Amino acid sequence: MEYTHSDTDLIKQPIGYWSWAASKAVVDRIRAALAGIGTTQPQWWVLAQVAGADTAKPRDEVSRLLLNYLDAGREAMESEIDTVIARGWAVEDAAGRLSLTADGREFHGRAAALQEELWAERHAGISDEEYLTTIKVLQRFIRNTGGQAWHH
User: What is the tens place of the pLDDT at every residue in 92-143?
Assistant: First the structure.
């Protein structure tokens, strides 16, 4: 869909609406694509955190970190971690550290390739400079309204 608002009209548009609409479109697309390969976005987050660790990653650390991504709370995040383990993608040792299994590494690779495709799709026609400006402006909106955001 091509938008035909003039710059004069756009300057009056509400950031709340456009940031919400962009977030919804991006998240809906990611979740649908991940569902297509048999996983959820929170399960992907778990896989990515565990795969990115140099050594087995403490479950509590994964859960705490990912709570910043999920509004549903700690129980929901713990449930997603349990599902990743139940699917055989990760194991938890006696000390509560998570490691990917061979199946988990293979699945993580497939999911990571999909995420790269989705990144390219989202960024089509958008320069790195435009993207950086957009992120910085959104950060200022958050700061200016007393909000908090964090992403790693």
Answer: 999 999 999 999 999 999 999 999 999 999 999 999 999 999 999 999 999 9
* DSSP conformation letters of 34-75: HHHTT--HHHHHHHHHHHT-SSPEEHHHHHHHHHTT-TT-HH
Tell whether 71 is covered by a domain.
Answer: yes
In a domain? residue 67: yes
What pLDDT band is residue 48 in, cutting at 50, 70 and 90? very high
Q: Which CATH number do you get for residue 114? A: 1.10.10.10
Residue type, 122: R
Total domains present in the chain: 1
Map tokens 């919804």 to a residue: 24
- Residue pair 83/76 in contact by the 8 Å Cβ criterion: no
pTM of the complete model: 0.87
Q: What is the pLDDT of residue 84?
A: 97
Residue 58 has pLDDT above 70, yes or no: yes
Q: Name which of 74, 24, 82, 69 is nearest 42 in CA terms.
A: 69
Give the integer Cα–Cα distance in Å for 34 and 18: 24
Q: Which structural domain range is residue 92 located in? A: 39-118
Residue 4 is given by DSSP the state: -
